Amino acid sequence: MKSALITGITGQDGAYLARMLLGKGYRVHGLLRRSASSDAIGERLRWLGIESDVVMLDADLMDLSSILRAVEMSRPDEVYNLAAQSFVKTSWTQPLLTGQVTGMGATNMLEAVRIAAPRARFYQASSSEMYGKIQAPVQDERTPFYPRSPYAAAKAFAHWMTVNYRESFGLHASSGILFNHESPLRGIEFVTRKITDAVARIRLGLADHVVLGNLDARRDWGHAADYVEAMWLMLQQEHADDYVVATGRSTSVREFCRLAFAHAGLDWERHVRVDAAHLRPAEVDVLHGDASKARRVLRWAPRITLEEMVAEMVEADLERLGGKGRRRVA
């Protein structure tokens, strides 16, 4: 039985990854930072019905000693570093915390693996936000980074540290440059979930409108359940490498609104308001990924369409709010 250690296991990606690995017969361990109530911590794992199937280990990315103990206890064959301060907007108001957790936290994990489990295979969750002010209309592994937020800069640091540990110490360390990926498990603070939650509330008569920022921003949106498969495939390769994971389809926030409201039989233009207070200090106008390498080497391709994902998210939020959502978890 293989052993896996996941940081950020209580987040969207960590929960889907844990479910997938359990389905493959892994013994799954997750790092647990004691900073919230147990109800909030286990919400996503309970939603997927796997809370009792994972082994939780107390540790914090800022405490190398606790990470070393977690690695020694779990004896992992594979380590997935998904934990981060991942909300871009917050990174401007908490830049030091973001740099420490998102950037140095990844380095702490690499160092713990190098010391305590050098034969383990390591995955780093890199981000398309690193491309920022894009240097090419379509971004792949060779496109230069131009971070436009403290979050993106911290992710770029973590990405290059992963490359450095691979080249300096021979670790099997890969990075997945994941473009935006969503699901019913996405945090309510993210724009996609903010939209689908608002749709459900308006449909049920609990709200009248939602306030958003830049409706013209374009993102390459996929489903988290598809993207965690790509993470796993990277660690099954003989040689470590870096891969873009994306759908190759770029869609505006405006179009995402239209799809979500239309699924509930609503006209988005009647319920969406724009407020400049929700704009970023430095905007990333468009992200559009080229996952040709992942398709060719990993034999990976997304299965869930944008339309299917939006419908699933709206239905899940209707169910959460006591409506008539028809629950389907990808």
Notable traits:
about 40% helix; about 325 residues; 12 helices; 7-stranded parallel β-sheet
Descriptive account of the structure:
There is one protein chain. α1 links the parallel β1 and β2. The longest helix has 22 residues, at 95-116. With 330 residues, this protein is of the alpha/beta class. It has helices at 12-23, 38-41, 43-47, 64-74, 88-93, 95-116, 150-169, 191-203, 224-234, 253-263, 292-298, 306-320, and strands spanning 3-7, 27-32, 55-58, 78-81, 121-127, 172-178, 181-182, 210-212, 218-219, 222-223, 242-245, 251-252, 272-274. It contains twelve helices and 13 strands. The chain has a seven-stranded parallel β-sheet, with helices on both faces. A two-stranded parallel ribbon has the order 7-10. A two-stranded parallel sheet has the order 8-13. The two termini are 25 Å apart. α8 packs parallel to α10 (253-263) and α10 (253-263) crosses α12. The chain is globular. The mean pLDDT is 94.
